[in-house]
């Protein structure tokens, strides 16, 4: 066996969840002492690595879907993955089952966290496509921290209804948040009752998103995190700018920030 790369630890898959063909979650346990305390901030990502058929390490970034959870001496990390058939790592991840070894980065990072949001934000809009919903589910698990927002709007855009993952968890969270959390599913390539159809930028502009969430958009109150498909991020940025919102920088407060998945 090759040496584990610096900055990685050996973990074990303890559960696999099948959502749809090519779409699955892996629950992984890693030794907690390989991580700082807290191990990560909700919304951050780590890395997963495996050795490919040529004996080379392949490593890629994956967001945690959960918040830092300890089980005895172990840290539990959950990842939502879509298999890219021509990709290097995801076809290897797609073969993993409970009991298999996976190598996990020990230095989680990323700035799409609640503490990066300016204090002026009253409503937090979390706009995601595909597996980009992951970091938002992690953030929403930090219930106490999220109570400071008046509304939390979770928008999840997918191609087909079977890709609307973690519905049961979202329903539980909606109960916990007692009306504060609004969930707006979007299915772009099928008609699905209770979901919008189309794409995030157009649905924002036409005010269908705000109508579905029953939350008013204003540059004074709204803050947006965008996550997932870089084309969605690009088009949504353009739309938000045309609506009078600005990119948030630490040096200059704005109303949106984003994470591209590829
Ligand atoms: C900060 C960050 C967090 C991420 N979190 C997640 C996550 O939680 N879950 C997850 O599934 N992925 C996530 N990704 C994407 C992940 O890192 C890999 O890029 C992805 O899994 C593909 O890896 P691969 O080795 O199979 O494909 P590669 O061999 O790297 O890529 C093959 C081709 O597919 C394109 N591609 C990469 N990802 C996608 C995608 N999702 N959809 C369409 N085309 C794509 C690439 O541009 C490339 O041209 C994240 C990426 C970043 C930067
Ligand atoms: N989803 C699948 O069935 C499937 C199956 C096997 C493999 N894969 C692999 O997984 C990759 C990622 O899949 P994914 O389902 O997460 O794909 P995706 O192409 O990122 O689609 C997710 C959602 O983002 C929307 N979207 C795409 N471009 C957009 C833009 N410019 N602006 C706003 N919204 C936009 C899509 O709408 P539109 O539908 O209008 O494009 C869809 O609703 C695929 O590229 C493929 O390689 C996917």
TrEMBL record:
Q: Catalysed reaction(s)?
A: 2 reduced [2Fe-2S]-[ferredoxin] + NADP(+) + H(+) = 2 oxidized [2Fe-2S]-[ferredoxin] + NADPH
The top EC class, named as a word, is oxidoreductase
- Enzyme Commission (EC) number: 1.18.1.2
Gene Ontology annotations of biological process type? cellular response to oxidative stress; heme catabolic process
The Swiss-Prot or TrEMBL record lists the needed cofactor(s) as: FAD
Q: Does the keyword Oxidoreductase apply?
A: yes
Top-rank taxon of the source lineage equals Bacteria
Q: Which SUPFAM superfamilies match?
A: Ferredoxin reductase-like, C-terminal NADP-linked domain, Riboflavin synthase domain-like
Q: List UniProt keywords, sorted A-Z.
A: FAD, Flavoprotein, NADP, Nucleotide-binding, Oxidoreductase
Family assignment?
Answer: Belongs to the ferredoxin--NADP reductase type 1 family.
Q: What is this protein called?
A: ferredoxin--NADP(+) reductase
What organism, scientifically named, is this protein from?
A: Vibrio algicola
């Amino acid at each position: 066996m090759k040496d584990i790369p610096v900055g990685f630890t050996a973990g074990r898959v303890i559960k696999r969840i099948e959502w749809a063909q090519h779409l699955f979650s892996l629950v992984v346990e890693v030794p907690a002492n390989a991580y700082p305390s807290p191990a990560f901030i909700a919304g951050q990502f780590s890395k997963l690595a495996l050795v490919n058929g040529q004996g080379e390490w392949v490593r890629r970034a994956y967001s945690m879907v959960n918040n830092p959870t300890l089980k005895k001496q172990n840290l539990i990390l959950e990842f939502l993955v879509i298999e890219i058939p021509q990709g290097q790592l995801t076809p290897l991840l797609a073969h993993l089952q409970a009991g298999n070894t996976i190598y996990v980065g020990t230095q989680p990072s990323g700035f799409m966290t609640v503490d990066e949001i300016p204090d002026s934000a009253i409503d937090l809009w979390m706009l995601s496509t595909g597996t980009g919903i992951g970091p938002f589910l992690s953030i929403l698990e930090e219930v106490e921290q999220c109570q400071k927002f008046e509304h939390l709007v979770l928008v999840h855009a997918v191609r087909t209804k079977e890709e609307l993952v973690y519905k049961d968890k979202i329903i539980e969270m909606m109960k916990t948040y007692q009306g504060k959390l609004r969930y707006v599913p979007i299915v772009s390539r099928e008609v699905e009752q209770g979901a919008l159809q189309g794409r995030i930028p157009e649905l924002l502009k036409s005010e269908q998103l705000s109508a579905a969430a029953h939350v008013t958009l204003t540059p004074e109150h709204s803050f947006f995190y965008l996550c997932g498909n870089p084309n969605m991020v690009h088009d949504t940025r353009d739309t938000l700018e045309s609506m009078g919102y600005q990119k948030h920088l630490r040096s200059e407060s704005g109303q949106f920030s984003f994470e591209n998945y590829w």
